[in-house]
Amino acid sequence: MKRYALFSGAYNLMMGGVKDLRQSYHTEKKAFEVATQIAKSDIFTSWVQIFDKKTDTAKIYSVVDGKLKERKGKSITEGAS
C-alpha cells in the first residue's frame, strides 16, 4: 500500500473499514485530485478521508454540493481521544 490511503462513503462510521478504502497513492496531491473527482461524480458520497500512513494522521472532508470542505478540528492524529 502506498503512503496516502483514500477512503470515502455515504456514512462516516469512525471505526469504518476496508469497504470504504478506494485506493492508495504516493502523493497527497494525487489522492486529493481523485477525492475531488469522487465528490463531483458520486452523489451518494458524503465524506472523504485522506490518511497519511507515515505520520498516522488524516484529513477529513465533507462533500457539499459536489465539492470537498475540510472538517476543521476533526482531523485524526495518533493518540487522540
In words, what does this structure look like?
With 81 residues, the chain is α+β, with helices and mostly antiparallel strands. The protein has one helix spanning 28-41, and strands at residues 4-9, 21-25, 47-52, 57-64, 67-70. The protein has a five-stranded antiparallel β-sheet with strand order 2-1-3-4-5, covered by helices on one side. Strand 3 (47-52) and strand 4 (57-64) form a beta hairpin. The termini are far apart. The model is unreliable at 77-81 (pLDDT under 50).
Q: Note the overall shape.
A: globular
Based on helices, strands and strand pairing, what is the structural class?
alpha+beta
Average pLDDT score:
87
What is the percent of helical residues? Answer: 10-25%
- Strands of the widest sheet, in order across it, are 2-1-3-4-5
Total count of helical runs of at least 4 residues: 1
Distance between the termini: 26 Å
Strand portion: 35-45%
- The tally of strands reads 5
- H/E element order: EEHEEE
The residue ranges in which pLDDT falls below 50 over 5 or more consecutive positions are 77-81
Descriptors for this entry?
5-stranded antiparallel sheet, alpha+beta, 36% strand, 81 residues
Short characterization:
By secondary structure, the protein is of the alpha+beta class. Helices cover 17% and strands 36% of the residues.
